Amino acid sequence: MTKIITNGLNLFYGKFHALKNVNSGFGENRITAIIGPSGCGKSTLLRVFNRMNDLIDGVRTEGEVVIGEKNILAPATDLVALRKKVGMVFQRPNPFPLSIYENIVFGERIHGDKVKDDKLDEIAEKSLRDVLLWDELKDRLNEPALRLSLEQKQRLCIARVIAVKPDVLLMDEPCSTLDPNATQRVEELMRELKNKYTIIIVTHNMQQAARVSDDTGFMLLGELIEFGNTETVFTAPSDKRTEDYITGRYG
Amino acid sequence: MRKIKETIIEKLILASGLASIFFVVLIFLFLIKEGLAVFQSVTPGAFLFGKSWYPISEPAQLGILPLILGSLLVTLGAAVISIPIGVGAAIYIAEIAPARIKDILKSGIELLAAIPSVVLGFIGMVTLVPLVKSLFHLPTGLTALSGSIMLAFMAMPTIVSIAEDALYSIPKNYKEGALALGATHWQAIWRVMLPAASSGILAAIMLGIGRVIGETMAVMMITGNAAVIPQSILVPVRTLTATIAAEMGEAVVGSEHYFALFAVGIVLFVISFGINVTADLFLHEKQSK
Predict the structure, then answer these.
(1) First to last CA, chain B
(2) What is the pLDDT of residues B72-114, one digit of tens each?
(3) Do B181 and A160 touch (CB under 8 A)?
(4) Engineering a disulfide at B183: which of B10, B132, B187, B217 sits with its beta carbon 3.0 to 4.6 angstroms away?
């Protein structure tokens, strides 16, 4: 099943052509990695899927991005509903300066009206269990989230997104600030989460893409050069530029 | 040669640094020396909580409670007016206004800060005072309320610019995180950005209030200067600052009255100092986060 389809997607920052005619299909319950050198547009592409690029002045998009049979680039798109369905984890862990508990139930508080406390407790516990933080943090729920370690913060941010019950998880270099051990554990977490979510991860780290993803897309200067099964992309790329990048000739 | 030059420059800078502290200490000592002398004729309790201020009657009554309450009332009124408007304006400028309007508003607020207080007082006297008088059917428009409104204008630039700074300096990824979870712009502001900026905003409020408490000229011109304990916000009051400004010229040097005015200065100093220290604590809390 394909969860997200892009058709002739073009994006401009003012006059700068940042995404050039991107056509792709992201499989449901799979992890798709997007790799490429800095400035290739991979984060921009990720941010198309939850319309985060709207925050930047002078951004213009053309083409279609279909998620759940709807073109989310349509002006009438309900951004709140879209972002509930398409969650995002950022490069730098960004827990809010609130308690651990309030971070996790943030989504429920803004989306539900008059939520009951026991329902919130339930959501907090379930989300923390899903990111394997419950045992560590169950007695510290009222502590400020900013006191956690980087890895715990990033897991908390994942829990916070999961608590909103999205279908898609967008991850923008989620491990780039973590040490190798923490990275490994977050990657394991991603593998567990893919049973429930469609995951798209942008990464600088080719080894990470090779380790964790089912499909891989390679981008260069705003173009999606290659897209396919991770193993194929890494062992038998069809485009010379992909091969050059993977073998480290540039990037 | 170069080394000598360096040393001289360093020493000069050190001297200017020390000079500022030295003068503060001198001023403080002078204030204490002159002010404490009043307690030879009244007890500190009778001075602070005495209900009548008749410094030139015989015998002089030197109770500054009416003045303290006058200052507090005017300040409180100014706070009630300027805090919501100031913080609201800061949110609008930091988060909502388009770039062009933002520039216009920011220069407008700087301009407001640049108006001398005597000019504000004068404008208040000819416009606000008659308005308050006719609006509330009062015998005089020279009231605590008029003073509060005028002082709110003076507190606002401080509150707006520091609070706007605090909001602007919150990491952008807080806002992005909230929006990515499906929060509306207002939810992101209310639930994430304001709590994140709270210490800076509190500092802004404290500094704004500090400015109001120390303000003299405008309050002297429009609060009516009646040294009685105010029963409502619609009566004339006299503040600590206005008392010193109005009476120092006529007080005989070395008299009880003269010492009492210095003691009023000490009270004012303590209040301002307290407010500034609190504001400082909030600002530091923000930095250590």
Answers:
(1) 45
(2) 999 999 999 999 999 999 999 999 999 899 999 999 999 998 9
(3) yes
(4) B187
